Amino acid sequence: MTSSPGAPAGGLLPVDLRCEYLVEPLGVEAASPRLSWALCSERRGQRQTAWQVLVAGSAEALAEGRGELWDSGKVESDRSVHVPYAGRRLRSRQRCFWKVRAWDADGREGPWSAAASWEMGLLRQADWRGKWISGPAPSQEQPQFRPSPVLRKVFPLGKPVRLARAYVCGLGYFELHVNGRRVGDHVLDPAFTRYDRRALYVTHDVTGHLVRGRNALGVMLGTGQYDCHTQEVWHFATAAWRDRPKVILQLHVEFEDGTARTIVSDATWRASTGPVVFDALRNGEVYDARLERPGWATAGFDDADWSPAVVVAGPGGELRSQQMPPIRVTGTIEPVAVTEPKA
Fold first, then answer.
1. Nearest 5°: phi and psi at 193?
2. 3-state helix, strand, coil in the chain (%, to 5)
3. Cα gap 56→69, rounded to integer Å
4. Are 121 and 93 within 8 A, CB to CB?
5. pLDDT of 72-114, one tens digit each?
6. How far is CA 324 from CA 33, 46, 57, 187, in A?
7. Local structure of 151: helix, strand or coil
8. 234 pLDDT band (50/70/90 cuts)?
9. What is the pLDDT, as a whole number, of residue 236?
């Protein structure tokens, strides 16, 4: 229970709405997502005695008080953590908007919370239409160097975009770029799994990255645990799943006129290598700035000297949504001086 200047006098206001521990999550795969909220009041010693949740398929319906996906009605309970959704069956990529209100210790009805939302992921393996792709096999002449593959795809969009989601699994690590801009602030995605049993995909909102006209997707791959090629005590270099980096991607675009389009990873993508000529999880990275390709993830880049992407076998495991707070850069240490006491 928290106190807040915006809390109703004597009543309870639900705040900090979460679904599956996360705020406004994308890619939720739980059949009955768990909903949680905190409570604030201007009175000390308050408690919840009942709650009501509304879930709607649109923000407009929710604002009008229509919970066509789920209206729990008044439920007498002090539970405010991990309340399972119990409404209509949810489908892949479905958006859900929800709010909650609570009754206090004296049975007084509080105000509705602010609206929150969650979005379902790709719930069935059959929902994946993309193929696993990689760059050409690396040269055997210099086996100590394993350049990081970069892949790109140019595609047109002829209508204004209302919403766009990218679903990506790049093993061992990936960075996604759209029209020359890196998407999101995650690093070291996806999380480590036994790839022959399960591989995690990440969902990104890329609505603001797309334009009407020609667009470009770009993916840079890293080895991570998937292609651990240096010897260490855990013997990941000989793991059953180990293979060269690869990616599977689907971009779902919804237009303002209600139509939709899906762009997927396949043999029509183009592949090359970039300035990262070596990377290993425990051995660092070799970056050759002479090999940079400015604009490589833009629609106007000339990729005539790139090779067609190669369709490859997947890691063997099922694709599952990565539902956890991402790794992020939280601080940067700037050098204050560079000294050389002795040449």
1. -140, 175
2. 5, 40, 55
3. 5
4. yes
5. 999 999 999 999 999 999 999 999 999 999 999 999 999 999 9
6. 14, 32, 24, 13
7. strand
8. confident
9. 87
Token pair for residue 108?
A: 């007084």
Q: Is the pLDDT of residue 143 over 60?
A: no
Strand, helix or coil for residue 65 = coil
**Amino acid letter, residue 324:** M
Count of C-beta atoms within a 10 Å radius of residue 125 = 9
| Closest residue by Cα to residue 152 from 275, 300, 269 | 269
Distance CA 249, CA 325 (A): 21
Contact between 17 and 36 (Cβ < 8 Å): yes
Owner of token pair 């859900």: 96
**Cα–Cα distance list, 269 to 24, 151, 218, 257, 311 (Å):** 32, 7, 10, 28, 10
- For the CA atoms of 188, 298, 306, 261, what is the dihedral angle to 10 degrees? 80
Predicted TM-score (pTM) of this structure:
0.91
Q: Between the CA of residue 307 and those of 159, 294, 304, what are the distances in Å?
A: 30, 18, 8
What percent of the chain lies above the pLDDT cut of 90?
A: 86
Q: Which of 298, 289, 265, 22 is nearest to 182 (CA)?
A: 298
CA angle 273, 330, 115 (to 5 degrees): 100
Please confirm whether the linkage preceding 14 is cis (ω < 30° from 0): no
pLDDT digits (tens, 9 = 90+) for 174-186: 999 999 999 999 9
Using CA atoms, how far apart are residues 178 and 196, in angstroms rounded to an integer?
A: 29
